[in-house]
């Protein structure tokens, strides 16, 4: 029973809707020109009715997410829809169409009348619906029992897709740790191309390519789609000569292929590490073993990516997400790590009749800097019991000196207390020097540092300085990564003053920095903004 076409889609309703489903179905039917018009119309109506039922009822009117898979075989059209709805029991006993005045209860009878099978399963908290319609043969379409043949595979596919999405690696920039493996494979096997390909929905996307490899292509044209069906090295020495895969040969690019599957932490096959060439060739047992070893190397890097993704979630979770309750004041902040995690952080929390404010930058980037930054944050927060900022910084310095010295790093920090009634900002600047007040009248005042960073001199006496924030004034504190978005010098602070004076709201400044940092930042980008409302 040859499979003609398979397509999978993921929808979020809202904003997606039943109209979205119809638009997606149109892309499927375009690949099946020989599908009888009556079969097409009936299948589409049944699928749309199923989607409408899920949107309306699966979560009792609340938003719902679902995946839809369409498979057209030589003898049938089969659709599987998997949703995360709370409704877990559905009565599929044959039923008559309700009367003309009825407003509900038409969906399932319509699906049953248009198809040969309507099935529902509840597995691991998900609803899995499958409908099957037999295709006409010789102009007739006798009704017959046609249970689904692909629902198990579709359920596996949904789990596989979720696992891939959870890894957070799709559509991320190239990384040297992956690129070095594909370059090595290309040289080691003497092939034209090597790639780390991930299979996503209806496409194949390459995390790393070497040589003439293609970054993105349709899934049904991909050889890696075949690789993820098994747990072994998959080799096709002469693709054009193999009737099973000849349609996937690409003259001048792909006529030999060897690949090994890559796995998500739960064991789901999410992609393949592969080499290929425009000319047929033999692939020895020893070469297959080397390919498997290189794939294991890629697998370890993918595991690191998963751990980094989780670490990034944890680090972002430590940043303040609730706005300070400071009548007459607005606060905003952003931290964009250059890597998955970074050494910068900002923080705010209520203290007395105002708030404590911190922005710190640990030397370096990545996991080591992130650990140091998290430690500094925790110590400064625990020191909030001290009545002045100098006491808090002194306590933090005393607690961190040994650890920072052992790690061979230092941390610059701006730590302040704001009195929301008077507008007085009391602060200690430990070697940071990147805080500025943009006054409402157009003047600017840089809050200079008078002390070394944390971890340099344990005997430092921390001096409290003050600044006045009047109505309409804005405090802007940044890491040096923000300066690098401009010319990298202190003159870049003038650009920030201009932003502060033009913006109606602190979050407008944050959005401008986000846009400027997108895809260009080589250093962590962090910003903390406090604005006093105008009278």
Topology of this structure?
Layout: E1 3-13, H1 18-29, H2 37-58, E2 64-73, E3 76-83, H3 107-114, E4 117-123, E5 126-134, H4 151-167, H5 176-189, E6 193-200, E7 203-211, E8 216-218, H6 224-227, E9 234-236, E10 256-263, E11 269-277, H7 285-318, E12 329-336, E13 344-351, E14 354-362, H8 366-382, H9 389-407, E15 411-419, E16 424-430, E17 435-438, E18 444-447, E19 465-468, E20 474-478, H10 480-484, H11 492-502, H12 506-517, E21 525-532
Antiparallel strand pairs: 1-2, 2-3, 3-5, 4-5, 6-7, 6-11, 7-8, 9-10, 10-11, 12-21, 13-14, 14-15, 15-16, 16-19, 17-18, 17-20, 20-21
Helix pairs in contact: 1-2, 2-3, 5-7, 8-9
In short:
The chain has 535 residues and is of the alpha+beta class.
Description:
The strands form 4 sheets. A 6-stranded antiparallel β-sheet has the order 8-7-6-11-10-9. 40% of the residues are buried. Helices cover 33% and strands 28% of the residues. It has 3 domains: 3-166, Heat Shock Protein 90; 168-310, GAF domain (Beta-Lactamase, 2-Layer Sandwich); 319-532, Phosphatase 2c, domain 1 (4-Layer Sandwich), CATH 3.60.40. With 535 residues, the chain is an alpha+beta fold. It is globular, with a radius of gyration of 30 Å. The mean pLDDT is 83. Helix 1 runs antiparallel to helix 2 (37-58). It contains 12 helices and 21 strands.
